[in-house]
Amino acid sequence: NRIATGGLMPDRTLLLDIDAAMGVQRATRVSADRLEGEDIAFHERVRAGFLRIAAENPGRFRVIDASGDVETVAGRVASAVADVVSLGGTGADESA
Fold first, then answer.
1. Which of 7, 21, 39, 44 has the most CB atoms around it within 10 Å of its CB?
2. Is residue 89 scored above 70 in pLDDT?
């Protein structure tokens, strides 16, 4: 990542965390690719790896419980980024 981004790091990284089995179930509702076809142990290792990275970078990462419905998870995401972005504006430069 450092090479591809020239060393740039995001101000905030969101990790949408969900139980591995539930995540695979959601991901394969329509279709599955090679990764979704891996066994559950693979998905648990991947999840653990991402959680470890988040724990090592607590100032940047926010771990979001993604087990709820769309509206609930969206609210959690909005709360996790509220201090770094303005969600209430029009998107246009209001000083112009």
1. 44
2. no
